[in-house]
Amino acid sequence: MSEFSDRIEKVSISGIREVFEAAGEDAINLGIGQPDFAAPEHARRAAIEAIKDGRADAYTENKGIRSLREAIAAKHERDQGIERHPDDIIATAGGSEALHIAMEAHVGSGDEVIIPDPGFVSYDALTKLADGTPVPVPLRDDLTLDPAAVEEAITDDTAAFIVNSPGNPTGAVSPPEDIREFARIADEHDVLCISDEVYEYTVFDGEFRSPAEFAETDNVVVVNSASKLYSMTGWRLGWVHGSSRRIERMVRAHQYVQACASAPAQFAAEAALTGPQGIVDEMTDSFQRRRDIVVDGLEDIGLTVPTPKGAFYAMPEVPDGFVDECLERGVIVVPGEAFGANGDGYARLSYATDEASLHEALDIMAEAYDAVV
Ligand SMILES: Cc1ncc(COP(=O)(O)O)c(C=O)c1O
């Protein structure tokens, strides 16, 4: 018997961390995937009041406080016209835990999970931790996930496929016809679609749609989170919604790994969802301005970059040695292969940083580019 599980030996610390550790202290960090805004004041206040009143001291229901789940249900009805009973929602420790329990509930030993490549680092790792096998699917040239490629990758062993639009690390937004296709594929092949919608509110071009709007079966579960919707990454509050039978399976994992999401964070997220929504437009407008700065700057350097339509990432094709040159000159960008083998030859830039730093970083990237071509 070996000391550590085969599962844990199959995953390693994310390549993103390694890049941070290699960078100097005053480097401009275009590596971090989190909004650079303050959380809404009313969300902070709600948590403080709940703490002061003693409402946040005890475990909550496993699925989360009822009023938060009602707020989440109301959000999805308002935004997507999806009617979800509050009992069919679990508040989780971020979208991360929501993805984890979705995998635990649906992926068995040897099952395959189709994931976008390049894609968010957790998809590969969480599949392996569930004892499944990741099946990476390359993206189209515009970095969207091709429904035909997903359909082709389905085998008798496929437990699930993951859709992430707007996407990390790409910033790509799938068009509504593709989202509709993902729902059809989930229905027709009787395979689960895990739709990771954590960047739902950050769309500049095109529109956000959810496969859950179109599916005729219950083969879609949706992961979302206050992290990117409301700039609340540190609060660790996300959720998953799906049919009763799927939620009932997911809560079995949730109750043992988490018991319940942090109570103060639940009160804060409820206030974020039900209070003034000004932060959403403010962040989107600001990210769009920064997207334009970054795309124009990268094109001026001579790099090819599909214009990101959402989230706050750009993924240019970069020459060999570019990422290291940037690091050496004090700009952190993440090598594309940290997000999957097909990310090789790309770099991910997060533009969730101030405009002055972005301009400075672009000047340095131009020097890095000249040094390697
Ligand atoms: C695509 C995607 N899904 C899920 C998450 C998890 O976010 P959190 O656990 O903070 O909600 C992230 C975080 O970067 C992400 O980029």
UniProtKB/TrEMBL annotation:
Domain of life assignment: Archaea
GO MF annotation: an example: pyridoxal phosphate binding
PROSITE patterns in UniProt: AA_TRANSFER_CLASS_1
InterPro entries, sorted: Aminotransferase_I/II_large, AspAT/PAT-like, NHTrfase_class1_PyrdxlP-BS, PyrdxlP-dep_Trfase, PyrdxlP-dep_Trfase_major, PyrdxlP-dep_Trfase_small
Required co-factors: pyridoxal 5'-phosphate
Keywords linked to the UniProt accession: Aminotransferase, Pyridoxal phosphate, Transferase
Aminotransferase class I/classII large domain ranges (all copies): 26-363
Enzyme nomenclature, EC number: 2.6.1.-
Regions that span the bilayer: none
Assembly with partners or alone: Homodimer.
Record protein name field: Aminotransferase
Organism: Halogeometricum borinquense
